[in-house]
Hints:
By secondary structure, this protein is α/β, with parallel strands linked by helices. It has helices at residues 12-16, 35-42, 64-67, 84-91, 105-112, 140-146, 196-206, 221-231, 247-254, 279-287, 297-300, 303-306, 343-352, 411-420, 427-437, and strands at 24-26, 51-55, 75-79, 96-97, 117-122, 130-132, 149-154, 169-171, 177-180, 214-217, 239-245, 270-275, 292-294, 312-317, 320-322, 327-328, 331-332, 335-336, 357-361, 365-367, 373-375, 377-378, 396-399, 402-405. The protein folds into 2 domains: 3-180, Glutaconate Coenzyme A-transferase (3-Layer(aba) Sandwich), CATH 3.40.1080; 196-437, 3-Layer(aba) Sandwich (Glutaconate Coenzyme A-transferase), CATH 3.40.1080.20. The strands form 6 sheets. The protein has an 8-stranded mixed beta sheet with strand order 13-12-11-10-14-19-23-24, with helices on both faces. It has a 7-stranded parallel beta sheet with strand order 4-3-2-1-5-7-9, sandwiched between helices. Strand 11 (239-245), helix 9 and strand 12 (270-275) form a beta-alpha-beta unit. It is globular and about 70 Å long.
Amino acid sequence: MLTEYRSKFVTPEQAARAVRSGDWVDYGFGAGFPELMDRALAGRKGELKDVKIRGGLVIRPRIEVVEKDPEQTTFTYYSWHIGDYERKLQSRGLVKFLPVMLRSLPELYRSHIRVDVAFVPVSAPDEKDYCGLGISNYAWRTIFEKARTVVFEINERLPRLQGVDGSHRVHLSEADYIVEGEHEPLPVRSYKEASEIDKKIAQLVVAEIPDGAVLSLGVGGVPFTVANMIAQSDLKDIGCHTGTISDAFMALHQAGKLTNARKQIDTGLSTWNLAMGSQELYNWLDAEPHLFRPGDLDYVHNPYRMAEMKNFISINGGVQLDLMGQENGESAGTRQLSGIGGQMDFLEGAFLSQGGKGFICMNSSRVTRDAVRKSNILPFIPGGSTVSAPRTMIQYVATEYGVVKLSGLSLMERAQAMISVAHPDFREELTKYAMENFH
């Protein structure tokens, strides 16, 4: 094994020599992260100039090229989606945000942007020198087929699944350099205990879900609570076709609900692009690879593929909604909190699916640190904040006060529907705005 490719095995420091001044280097997305190559590249601070690194949704506690070069004399870090750690970098001015709708990312790489070097985290190779893409399929194949230099970083801790049809598989022959070494434990993502409001919203949404529904769950309190409620319900034969598979789906599996039996495509398989959650989740992926069809963004985030499945249900959180149904799902004013990710992809897929429903779930209000209650349903999205999804894309809205469907409604009818699920303290002023502005 490996003898044919032994010459490609180098130290991370040797592989990092492939990066040149002015290069764009890709680190990937999510909980998969090229930590050995990151450390080696950071060691070249001062030797290189204007090296630009792209990543996103980083939940590990450190990116060495950023922390070792806070003056940004050599490295500049760009993110497609602000994750937990990147939010901290943002407050220090050390991350530049790149807005993107995830389904368009592969085409961006194919036709519009440059990639010079790709650091691809892969699992340990099998006896035929194939590796899996671990917990982040992303758009890796598209990216490394475009790159000048491809470095595979073998991470002994990654799940070894390769996809039942090879959808999650790469071969050592496809790399220019291969590095290996000891890795830190995989970064894990946990969820806060569900609030009473989360439970109320989840209860309302679960009532809208039929047997055999195919779920796409965003990350956050309400989607996780929905999964736990389904696990304890009478619903059966739930399917999974989602951007990120998480402990929420593992809970459904453990309850015997996640059979994927009624999916029109990938029948019997859970389909996903990223995995993010507990070590137990990663162990499950490794132990039962026959249950999963991991795929790239072109496959998983394609709304027309979702449309082939009946009762496709997309559940996501939001930050603010206005009376027309415009949604801010990612910013607080001009401060980027996350990114749009795949939300629009799955909203469209749910709309196109026979019996499908796309939900934006949100607390009707919040209480500030100064103990002031503020509405999350506003007359309009404030200046500086992002309109993540236009009013034309929003189908269902759920708060603790109910579920409303906006599709096909006039502006005034939308406003009335939104007011009906707003916090009672704000309904009068929202009604006044609607009466003055919508006819």
